Amino acid sequence: MNRSLLFKFLGLPMIQKDLFLAMKKTSWMVIQIIYLVVVGFVLSLNILNWKGTNSSPDSLWSTVSTTELVFVYLFMQMMALCVIFPFLAGSTISRERSEKTWALLRTTSMTPGELIRGKFFALLSQGVFILLISAPLLVMMTLLGGVALENLLMEYLIHVVLIAWISSVGVLSSAITRKGAASYISTPLFFFFPMLAALNGAGFTYLREKQTITSKLVAFHAFDPEAFFLTISVVFITGLGSLLGAIHLTSPKNSVRSLPTRIGIFVLYGYAAIWFFVYAPTLLKVPAREFLMLTFLSGILLVPLLRIAGAGPEVPLGIRQLGRDKPIASRLLVLFTPGGIRNLLFCVLIILLFIPAGLVGGEGVLSDPNVDVVTATAGLDFLRDLYFSVLFWIASLMALAWFLGQCGCGSILSASLAFTAHLIAVLVLTVLTVRSGIPGWPAYEPGLGMISTPYNLIQIAGTNSAYNFQRGFPSYFDPGAVRMDTIFNIVTFLLFSVLGIVVSVVKKRPLFSVYSGNDGKLLLDLPDSASVSNDQQNVTDSISVVDPDFNSDSQNVKTKDES
Amino acid sequence: MSLSSAILQVRNLSVSFGKIKAVNNVNFDVERGVIHGFIGPNGAGKTTTIRVISTLQVPDEGGVWVNGQNVLTQPDSIRMNLGYMPDHVGVYAGLSVMEYLDFFAMTRRIYGPKKSSVISDVVELTDLGDLLDREVESLSKGMRQRMCLAQTLLHEPDLLILDEPASGLDPRARIEFRDLILELRRLGKTVFLSSHILSELSPICDSVSIIEKGRVVAHGSIDEIQTLMSQGKTSFDVTLLKEPGKELEPLLSQLPGFMLIMLQGKKFRFEWTGEIEDVSKVWELLSTNGFVISGISKKEDNLENIFMSLTTGEVQ
After folding, report:
1. Which of B5, B56, B67, B73 to mutate to test the interface with A (most CBs of A within 10 A)?
2. What share of chain A is helix, strand, coil (3-state, %, to 5)?
3. What pLDDT is attached to residue A17?
4. Could you tell me the residue ranges of all domains in chain A?
5. Pairing mode, if any, of strands B69-70 and B207-212?
């Protein structure tokens, strides 16, 4: 790889500049000093606690206290990463916007992809630098005994992955917000739950079990490699997806980049679907409550697609030109092309990727001789029911978002309104349920209360066990029973799809064609200087100051689409 | 590629922000190697138009071509040949001038020995030699403008887009900056600069576009616009030795082509629509009737007068 390609891939000028500025900042020095103080403090405590045994060279320091020292230090390090790093990452682009340097960068030869990759690698480098400050001390303690080197390296690897993940999501958060102040407010929202989970996980394992989170994870993953694969997959998909999202947000909106972006999104979801398919045969090994979380996860994983479903009906100009210049490639990639009904079809296509996982989910467990087939089959039906219910729910949301997009709402507004409508439905159903005064969980009975999938999931999560719920209400979960929420989701999907088509027809927009009448006024090719619109002539005539070129002949400009 | 001699072509350009149409069906060309002034009051749509030309903003309608390349479909190629200086120059606190230029050279894919040579050239051109080690934060506004101009020149673009470059500069810095722009034209660059300081643009611009409320209300060279504005009329201010009576207007109105515009004390202003050499008949008639002329001045339609005539000062 030559230097130029390396520069492009890494966004090297951006890395160099960001690192250089970071090194010069006082706050950067303060962070390093805090780290050194923490390390020094816990080290001092450990030395004071030195038992002075001399049975072996390994016990120069107490093995127990050295282990604790490392645990304390690693916990502090993770806490610091979770608290400080989101703010560092979340302001990386918005700070440039505030300082009016972002516009300058966007007119340079660096592409949005280079700028975002440069920002990401600069943040990653800063994070790794923080980690390396104390590495020599930790290695020294490892050599003195108490902590296995491989455990320490694994812990560091996890911290590096955490930094990479925070950096990518932080860059996305920063790309979304326009102002520096807004990014400081929105960043904690982005990271609240992951931060809580990481700190809780790290703190709990240390305080209760005197273990690092690594040792817990390693033990867990050694037992369940699929879970390890799940963790890595989720981190990879959300991290890479965040970077792609940031590139998309910082690119001009009417550009051909939306085509590779959609292909990238398709690949990422395809990867997730494959994982679900591979992992699905062992789903029943997962406890019910965790499976419920997994079902939520699959639903949440698809929520970002709402923005694509609710995107405007226009086709980016670059893609229209691609359709003209390379018609075969354009036809092959038509489902990845934004605009019209393709926005909805693309999302449905991604949902379809997840269908095989639902069909084969848990089948493997039935062949296990130690499993009661009747119970396992009942459980399997229950889990499949939940899984497909979530997929139908997302499809219904997408149809609503698409309809709103056709009505002229922007992609963010359409997605927000569609999601909000369902949240309000959940709230209303909850109030109705409470007011009904029926003891127990009246919403579980077949009726209006069951039309909302998220409401049902919340109710199920509220019970002690999904299986208890299943046993208590057989009428609802009987094999072959038709669920009210599934019917509701299918009906609303069809309803909003048809309504969206009606809106398109009324507004005379092509549904499937990449040539949209609404952006016909965007000019693809340079028209003759003589042929400009009547409007210009009227303006110039009215003041008697004209450019002869613009006055000689007045015709509407013909775009390539029209010609 | 366009065969036109114009380096910049704007056709039917419209940009809206919500219900406000910031740029409304704008058309103009900028010829290669000229200094083109883009004039308009605040809020007229200058910066929005410039952002579209600089590939930072997507239009709603119409199109912009730089060197025959469309800003929508070939933004990367256009950036290779365009230098953009925004109205508010952003600087990285903590970098020196040299580091700033070094960074922007790399963002323009200029590396190695060529980088040093290019930086050295633009530093010499913009007279930044004594400031290379200074932190950009410590620079005055004029120095920052020169530094930002230097970074726009690193990749040797043909077209320079300067948004309000003289805004906030002291008189000396303005003159220095004006000289720099003239030097760039001499080097063959096309300079497209927006401003509302008309006195700065008049002496250096080869052509102008006047924009108000998102529409171009005049476009062309200053001479062309002056000619079109005057519509064959020439105004004169005359000062007499003594204050004339009411007999002045009927006396002079017998001359075809004479129209009295204003009479105030010893001074009066008139418009002459006849042949310009025939205006001497006015002076002869005045002398014949005992009026002594103490001063005559021909009223020029300068850029400021044109601007005031064409614009109303309203914003959208």
Report:
1. B73
2. 75, 0, 25
3. 92
4. 1-249, 252-521, 523-563
5. unpaired
